[in-house]
Amino acid sequence: MIIFMMERICEQLKAWRKEMRPVLVKSASSKTFCVGGDIKEALSKELEILKNLSLFTSLVATYPAPYVALIDGLMMGAGCSIFVHGQFRVATERTVLAMPEVDISHFPDVDASCVLPRPPGRLGYLLVITGHQLEGRQVMEAGLATHYCRSTSLLDLQEALVSCAGLSYLDIERILEGHTQSRSSCIENTIQLDLEDVEMFFSAATIEGIMLRLEHLNHTWAYKTLAGMAVASPTSFKVTKKLLDKGAKMNLQECLLMEYGLTISGIRARVTDFCHCSV
């Protein structure tokens, strides 16, 4: 799993940073972009992994040369850190973004508190609280990808990018525009709710308030969402919502420090309902 290789990856990125090398990131898998890591192993090395992931996130966010990510396939949890702070982020129809941490009685970390409060209509809250997934163009519509490309065109796009030495930002933008498709509004059609409703539900001040608003919606999606929330960790929900609320007013470095401190507190406390799931 890539999160267990982060120390080595960070050293390589530092070396390329000194040389001002453009970076192109893609997956070697035909099905996944990055899905985090095995939760049992991750828990045994939690602080070490979080340190390395936080460093990697900072390196990408401040990388001085073009950083391009081709996001083809499933990406989950901490795997999103691999792409989300790059300047160019290309989704395909096979892209699926999921933040399942609450489902395993954890909370989203490694920059989630910085990234997820910012998509329109409180979509980030929808992702982490309900387990809803964004697919294909939706990832771009939410602002988490910058471009959209058919997966069958990715190889041509990759070849165009790597064939040009010393690519500038303008060169990459020109190549991407030549290989990607324009925006279209599709989020509302897929979740069968309009963004004003999502905003209304998830702008409630508390988790209890969100659940109360959902209870008043006569909709199959609301019933399924409430059923899922009823068996998850209450502490995990509350911590996650507080993280996003606070992160909306903080910069990336502040969010990473907040998440790191919360992880340390969680390791010390190991609250029962926060870790009740069998892993």
UniProtKB/TrEMBL annotation:
<dbReference type="InterPro" id="IPR045004">
    <property type="entry name" value="ECH_dom"/>
</dbReference>
<protein>
    <recommendedName>
        <fullName>3-hydroxyisobutyryl-CoA hydrolase, mitochondrial</fullName>
        <ecNumber>3.1.2.4</ecNumber>
    </recommendedName>
</protein>
<dbReference type="Pfam" id="PF16113">
    <property type="entry name" value="ECH_2"/>
</dbReference>
<feature type="domain" description="Enoyl-CoA hydratase/isomerase">
    <location>
        <begin position="5"/>
        <end position="275"/>
    </location>
</feature>
<keyword id="KW-0378">Hydrolase</keyword>
<dbReference type="InterPro" id="IPR032259">
    <property type="entry name" value="HIBYL-CoA-H"/>
</dbReference>
<dbReference type="InterPro" id="IPR029045">
    <property type="entry name" value="ClpP/crotonase-like_dom_sf"/>
</dbReference>
<comment type="similarity">
    <text>Belongs to the enoyl-CoA hydratase/isomerase family.</text>
</comment>
<comment type="function">
    <text>Hydrolyzes 3-hydroxyisobutyryl-CoA (HIBYL-CoA), a saline catabolite. Has high activity toward isobutyryl-CoA. Could be an isobutyryl-CoA dehydrogenase that functions in valine catabolism. Also hydrolyzes 3-hydroxypropanoyl-CoA.</text>
</comment>
